[in-house]
Structure prediction request, 353 residues.
Amino acid sequence: MMSFKWKKCAAGALAALIMLTGSMSFADGLDTVYIDLMLKALENQPKEERVNFGSLLKVTFYDQETLEVTKTNYQTQLTQSQKEFMAANGITAEVVIKNLEALKTWSFADRMALVDASVNLSKNGMLMLNNKYATTVNGGSVFTPTEEVKGTLLPDGISIVKPSLGMKQSFKDMTTHWSGSYVTLLTRANVITGYPDGTYRPEVTLSKAEVITMLVKAFSKDFRTLKPEILPVDVKPTDWHYDFMAYGSYLKLFALQGDLALPNEPLTREKTANIMANMAMALKLNPEGGTSLTFTDINHLSKTTQEDLLWLTKMGIFSGYPDGTFRPNQVVTRAEASVLVIKMMQLFYGNFE
Prediction:
């Protein structure tokens, strides 16, 4: 039988790792990198005390009193190794307290999602998160198209071969950023690069053309040869984004406004969701399976947008914020777009590394 002190210690260590900054939500943190961080922080605990870790979480995360005690005492309950790990990764007391407070408002199902993720971790597969990432024999998920279906995508210029990863790039402004592991994979897959001064600038907002370019680079090798019958009038051969936007129009990733593509418009989370859902359709990701999230601020959006968004949350690509909002009018950043694209790549190609 595990001690109550160990329960509180585990809760503190895990809660500390759920979110590395206040800008990301609970669901965003439920991915391999965060579970890996959790396991690293707990690696010094006796093996016999980790065997039933899933059962422990079911008790700990549903126990409000334990959360309250952990909020006050977590620093004295962590081992020195765990404290050093947290300090090295920018996990501060403020972040821990904020996340422990947020834990009280999450549903039992949300907490169990974290349990599912931790106890079903597969190093070479994907996580099982409320059946969102059910591992299959091909190493993908319930949403991953079969090899036979992937073969039908070749005429549309979709690359069905998993990109090879290049050398890791280091960015001086990404050492403690929450999106670091995603950015690392995306840059190694040659989908996006940093700036000449050695920065990635994760909080810079993006235009429609920039997001479309990331998706095209992620999923196509033959995009320059495929164009729609009628080009948008504001997409010209002299534009840097010409081939990317033209191919995006060919795949119907975005709707024209009149005869305009509006490549330079700042891309909101709502419009990003539309584009990502259209990309998922172009990739023939399976629309069935999983459990969608709910948001308090999307009822005014179109029915199509709501359906797009809920499908993306089923796949674990998009999520909201701890207060239950989606914030559809917020402009997407380089960091956010990087996370969205690499998650979709891993659904289509299978897990990287």
User: Anything to note?
Assistant: The two ends are 36 Å apart (CA to CA).
